[in-house]
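Thread: zinc ion complex, take 2
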Amino acid sequence: MMMRSYFLSILALCVAVLLPAMAQTPEDYPLAKSYAQYKAIQASLAADDYMTAREAIPPFIAALKSELGEREAPKLYRAAEKFLTADSLQKAREEFADISGRFSNQTDAYPNHGGYFTCVCTSVPGNVQFVQREKDITRCPYGGRANPTCGRVLSQSPKK
Ligand SMILES: [Zn+2]
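Output below.
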């Protein structure tokens, strides 16, 4: 019994120490909150799922405004709002390309691109781009389910 309560208090201590540390991890890089939503949109488009992609747009805009400032990137905010009006997956991907170009302008402003990679799709014409923190491409938002790994890294920065 003594052993068990000792074990439990050690466990409680670990949880108390580790949980806040885990919760802080997403905050450790620039635009972390915005990127979490951007990534959700990207992943949904990679799954050919426009409706789920749409759901991340309002929190994406809110996160951008909180991290960049209400007036900092009006064209990016407008591009994100326009995504909501797309009437097809194809159109949504065109709007996402606009969002991505503007989002990468923001990440590029940080030293080492803030740890982001700007990637270009290699299966769709027009050099459409997207941004991600992983070097490997597993969810191309333009290739979709038919081609989730198409694309290559255009600009990169060393991971810290
Ligand atoms: Zn692609």
